[in-house]
Amino acid sequence: MNPDDPTPAPVRPTVAENEWGRVDDAGDVFVRTGAGERQIGSWQVGEPEQALAFFGRKYDDLVVQVDLLEQRLGSGAAAPDETQAGVRKLREALVEPHAIGDFAVLLQRLEAIEERIAERRAARRAERAQALDEARVRKEHIAVQAEAIAEGDDWRHGADRLRTLLDEWKSLPRLDRATDDALWRRFSSARTHYTRQRRTHFAEVAERREQAKAVKEEILAEAEALADSTDWGATARRFRELMARWKAAGPAPKPADDALWRRFRAAQDTFFTARSSDLSKRDTEQQSNLEAKQALLHEAEALLPVDDWKAARESLRSIHERWEAAGHVPRDAMRAVESRLRRVEEAVREAEQSEWRRTNPEARARAEATVAQLQASIADLENQVAAARERGDTTRAAEAEDALSARRSWLAQAESALDEFRA
Fold first, then answer.
1. Whole-number pLDDT of residue 1
2. Tens of pLDDT along 342-378?
3. How far, in Å, are 236, 269, 289, 325, 398 from residue 329 at the CA level?
4. Cα-based distances in Å from 123 to 117, 118, 128, 133, 315
C-alpha cells in the first residue's frame, strides 16, 4: 500500500468479534471506539477468539485499577492528591490503550472520581477551617482560664493547672500569626503574673514560719524545764497553756517543726508519765484491774488468727463482759490495753466481713454477668476480625484485634474474681 495514496485500504473479513473489538483473517486485532475502530495488535498464533480474550483481560486490568481508585478514595485509605495522581496515570494509559472494552465508561468513571476528589478537597479545606476556628476558641478559653488563675490565690494547684493549659496549647494547631501571637501574649503574661505572685506568697509564708519557729523554741525551753516538776496540778495546767500557744504559733519550717514537736511531746510525756506513775502507786485497785485486763488480753489474742469468726465472736463477747467488770486501769496503761483489745475486735470484724463478701450472692451474680458479657464481646470481636480479614480491611482488622486483646485481659481478671466466689 502506498502511504501517499488517499484511497483507504479495503476492510478484510472478520473471523472473530465481540461488542468492542474484532479480529480479521490476517490476524490484525481492532478495538471499536466512539471515533471508529483502531488497530491495537496482531494475533498470529492460536484461535482468533483467544486474541479477543487476551486484549479483554488487558481491559479488565484497567477496570481493576479504576475500581481500586474508587475504593481507596471512598474508604479514606488514599489522600485526594494520591488518588489524583492515579487518575492522571490511568488517563495517560487510556489515550491509545492496547485493550478491548468500553473505554467511554472508564473515562466517565474517572471523571466521577475527579469530581469526588474535588469534593473531598473542599471538605478537607472546610475541616481545616473548622479545626482552626475551634483552636482559636479553645486558645481564647485557655487565655481566659490562665488570667483567672493569675488573679486568684490557689498557690497549691494553680501552677499545675497552668502547666496543663500549656500542654494543651502546644497540642493545638497554630492560627494566623497575628491572632496566635496576641492570644499567646495574654496567656504568657498571665503565667508570668501568677508566678511572681506565687513567689511572693511563699516568701511571706517562709517568713511567718521562721517567726513560728522562734516562738516554739521559747515554748519548748519552758516545757523541758517543767518536765521534771512534781507539782502535778499547776504544771498540768501550764502544759495545757503551752499547748494552746504552740497551736496558735502556726507551722514552722517542716524539718524543724517535726523535731521541735518531738521534743515538746517528749517533755509532756515525761511529766504526765511521772504523774500517772505516782497516781498508780497510790491506786492498787487500778493496778489489779490492769493485771486482770492483761490476762483477758492474752485470752483475746489467743483467738488470732481468726479461723472461725462466729466462735471468735462468742468468745470475745464473754471477754468484753469480764473486761467491763474489771473496772478502770491506770491512765498511762489505758491506751495500750485498749489498743490491743481493739486489734482483736477489728480482726474478728474483718473475718466476718470477709466471709460475708465471699458469700454475697449479689456480688457473685455481678461477677458472673461481667464474665458472660466479656465472653459475648470477645466472640463478636473475633467475628469482626474474621470479616475484616476476608474483606482485606487490614486497618479495621487491627483495630478489632487491639480491642479483642483488651477484652481478653479484662476477662482473665473477671474470671479470677469469680473464682474467689467458687472457692
1. 45
2. 998 898 888 888 777 666 667 667 777 887 887 888 8
3. 20, 18, 6, 12, 72
4. 10, 9, 9, 15, 78
Element (H, E) at 310: helix 309-326
Percent of the chain with pLDDT over 70: 94
The cell numbers describing 82, all together, are: 494520591
* Predicted TM-score of the model (pTM): 0.37
| CA–CA distance, 69 with 335 (Å, rounded to integer) | 83
Distance CA 148, CA 146 (A): 5
pLDDT digits (tens, 9 = 90+) for 257-296: 899 899 989 998 998 899 888 766 767 888 888 888 889 8
**Alpha carbon distances (Å) from 397 to 76, 79, 101, 187:** 16, 21, 36, 43
Q: Give per-residue burial for 72-91: e unless 16+ CB within 10 Å, then b.
A: ebeeeebebeebbebbeebe
CB-facing half-sphere around the CA of 336: CA atoms within 13 A: 9
Which helix (H) or strand (E) element contains residue 41? strand 36-42
Q: Determine the residue type at 73.
A: L
- Per the document, the length of the chain is 423
CA 129 to chain centre: 29
CB 303 within 8 A of CB 346: no
For 180-230, what is each residue's pLDDT tens digit?
A: 889 899 989 999 998 998 898 889 888 888 899 899 889 989 898 988 998
Assess contact for 182 and 136: CB atoms under 8 A.
no
